[in-house]
Fold this sequence. Notes:
By secondary structure, this protein is of the alpha/beta class.
Amino acid sequence: METAHTPPQETVAIADKPVLWVEAVSAWYGKALAVDDVTLSFPPRRITAIIGPSGCGKSTFIRTINRMHEIIPGTRVAGKVILDGQNVYDAGVSPVAVRRRIGMVFQKPNPFPTMSVYENVASGWRLTGGKRKSELDEIVETSLRQAALWDEVKDKLREPGTSLSGGQQQRLCIARALAVKPKVLLLDEPCSALDPTATAKIEETVGVLKHELTIVIVTHNMQQAARASDLTGFLLTGRLIEYGETKKIFTLPKEKLTEDYITGRFG
C-alpha cells in the first residue's frame, strides 16, 4: 500500500478538502487514447458534472474512477485515483471493494431482471455478508427512501424490478448502489433514456443525496449540468479543458473552447 496522498491544490475548486481526486489519469482502448492526462478533484457533498461532446471520453473517464474500465478486454489505465488518501490502483486493492465504495449507475436502467424490487436492492448488501432479515429489511427501506422510491414501491417489493416504469427503474438502480453505503456515486447519463418528468425526479433525488455523498454525473445535457451541479468539468478529445464552479463555467468561462461549446458553436 502507498502512503497517504495530498491532492494537487490547483484542482480544488472550492474550500472543502476533496474526498476523491485523480492525478494524471489516462485511459486506452487498445492503442487508442480515450482519456488524456486528466487531473481533477471532487469535494465532499457536491455534485460535479462532466460535460463534453459525444465521444470526448466522459464515460470512459468516470469508469476509470471505480476501475470499471479495466473489465473491458484490451484496455489500460495510467495515473492515480485517490479515495480517502489511498490510490485505488495500488497493488493489493480489490476492484470489488473499490466498486462498493464508489458506486455507479449507468445510462440505461438495468435492474436485475430475475429479481424482485426487494432483491434488487438487497443483492449488493448480501455480497458484503449481510444476511439477517431484519438488517436486510432496514437496508432495503433506507436505500429506497434515499432514492425517493419507497412510497411508490413499498407495496410492490415482491414484484419484478423490471415491472416498474423507466424512471422508477433508474431510481431502483440508485437504491441498489446506495445499499452498500458508498462514499462516492457515479452517474453516467442517468436521464438520457427518461422523459422530462422522470428526469426532474432523478435530479431532485440526486440533489438530496449530495448532502451525504460525493456525486459525479456525466451528462450531454448542458441545461441539466447548469441546473443540477455545483462544479463542472469540460472534456474535449479526452483532455480536461476547464474545471470550476458551474455558475462561472456557464457564465464566464476562462477558455475559448469552453465558451464555444456551451454556446453551441460545436458539439
